[in-house]
Design brief:
2 copies of one chain form a homodimer. By secondary structure, chain A is an all-alpha fold. Chain A has one domain (5-299): Farnesyl Diphosphate Synthase (Orthogonal Bundle). Helix content of chain A is 70%, strand content 1%. The first copy, chain A, has helices spanning 5-23, 32-42, 49-65, 75-93, 110-114, 116-135, 141-154, 161-171, 178-203, 208-235, 238-241, 247-250, 256-260, 262-278, 288-299, and strands at residues 103-104, 107-108. In chain A, α3 (49-65) packs antiparallel against α15 (288-299) and α8 packs antiparallel against α9 (178-203). The longest helix of chain A has 28 residues, at 208-235. At the A-B interface, α2, α6, α7 and α8 of A face α2, α6, α7 and α8 of B.
Chain lengths: 302, 302
């Protein structure tokens, strides 16, 4: 049976939007400014790719155990917590002291609208709120504890998101090397994508060895997605991207095409996806929707 | 048997320092700058009051259940996670966009030494690392989940630390009222102090009604500690405090003495502690060390 990727992406992002709407404090909650800032950043047109990957991993594990099963009950709350963490990283990345970006997806960034102080605190609050959501997940307590551990490591300084951000800042002073670009991509974006898949699997009760296959799948596919992001930044216009195109090359940012060129970048992404798919063999036909989403992400043109 | 408060404070802070030393990544971990920044801020001379209150609450609960029991195994890791969260809030509060403080406890603040970008990320990282530590606590998984929930609410925007910080920023534009000062204190500092006690109790396996007594104790005692902090800021010199004294009155910050004067502030703090102690009656003599620490904190002169 063919997989309708557009339907998965559309219904998945709608489901995450509705869940975020329910989980975030209402905009008239005191203090007003921070709650308006949270909603401004969370509902700024994100594609919800990490939560969708998380939900598809959970559905795959559930379906492989019982072919009548679909998305595990409440998995959209796990996906929403992951989206909060992703959004917190964007809010802080955009700050004047970091990337100093005034626009994201064509809209003014949090600090432009609410000021730097509230933007710093809004990022902080999204991280905090994510852990509150995790503490209320509808899965057994040991699974929640594993998910908290996975997510905190994936967003941390040693091999996670913050570490990648620091490497990126430090790397701006020198010409990018292949090792540096790969290290930054794996930590800055790869770790949270990988943990989205891993935690989806844990939520659905995957065995430890299945979780490890999801981890390897995530590492390879996550790197492929980032390579495609890098390529699109070079080849697309500002209008299509909703941000300042070519910004990464202008500041000699550490990107895959800057080191390897566009042709090899596209080939690397395709090879990584093939290798990632090999990890999903044990899930049989249950893996088709997740694989279709991953294939779409490396073949997209915008 | 008399309680040796100085010994509790000294050995408690030493134990927390040793645990933080073990839990934080080594300073030569890559990327270097962020790991050096974490240690700079965490080992800047904090008194470790929140972890000490947490450990004493846990000891009280354990001792009340079994008079041969002392501190529950591993409770210093819970205390260290709470100290990381407290430190993250200080690092971000000190940033130029917030309080713009160059000194804390007589030492240059994180952004002065490492720059704003690393200071923002170091604060983020301390929050992240705290949750990683919580996920590894040596207590049953349901207790860990409860602790994650308590701590995320206590540091959040609705009734927690970030919300209090926002109220404080918003309040700077107007003359402080009694209701405003109390709301700020309860959220900005009271919530984390309360949760330190509550989580210490949960860690030691306290029953739900005992946990609620600890919560009321924490709310009253936490407010008393903050009132004393406010009073000391007015009455002490910069040298004794290691920060710019009188800064709160200079900017008409929302403080207890600014609304009520010093004499009534001292009386309020004493009355709050008496009311807090009434909550501890069910713990009998097991509560003496915790009460002695609380009494010391409202009677301290610096």
């Amino acid at each position: 049976m063919p997989v309708d990727v557009q339907h998965i992406l559309h219904s998945g992002s709608e489901r995450i939007d509705q869940t975020l709407e329910r989980l975030l404090p209402a905009p008239d909650t005191i203090p007003h400014s921070i709650h308006r800032a949270l909603r401004h950043t969370v509902f700024a047109g994100g594609k919800r790719l990490r939560p969708i990957l998380c939900m598809e991993a959970a559905r795959m594990v559930a379906h492989h155990k019982n072919s009548a099963a679909s998305y595990p009950d409440g998995v959209e709350e796990l996906g929403s917590a992951i989206e909060m963490l992703h959004t917190y990283s964007l809010v802080h990345d955009d700050l004047p002291a970091l990337d100093n970006d005034d626009l994201r997806r064509g809209k003014p960034t949090c600090h432009v609208v609410f000021g730097e102080a509230i933007a710093i605190l809004a990022g902080d609050a999204l991280q905090t709120q994510a852990y509150e959501v995790l503490s209320n997940l509808r899965c057994p307590a040991p699974a929640i504890v594993s998910i908290v551990r996975e997510i905190s490591i994936a967003t941390g300084t040693v091999e996670g998101m913050i570490g990648g951000q620091v490497l990126d800042i430090e790397g701006e002073r020198q010409a990018p090397t292949a090792a540096m670009v790969e290290a930054i991509h794996r930590a800055k974006t790869g770790a949270l994508i990988t943990t989205s898949l891993v935690c989806g699997g844990i939520y659905a009760g995957a065995s430890p060895d299945r979780v490890e296959h999801l981890r390897v799948f995530g590492k390879k596919a996550g790197l492929a997605f980032q390579i495609i992001d890098d390529v699109l930044d070079v080849t697309q216009s500002s209008e299509q991207l909703g941000k300042t195109a070519g910004k990464d090359t202008a500041t000699v940012k550490a990107t895959w095409p800057a080191v390897y060129g566009i042709e090899k970048s596209l080939a690397d992404a395709a090879n990584l996806i093939t290798a990632a798919f090999a990890e999903m063999e044990g899930f049989g036909a249950s893996a088709e929707p997740l694989k279709a989403v991953a294939r779409y992400l490396v073949e997209r043109k915008h």
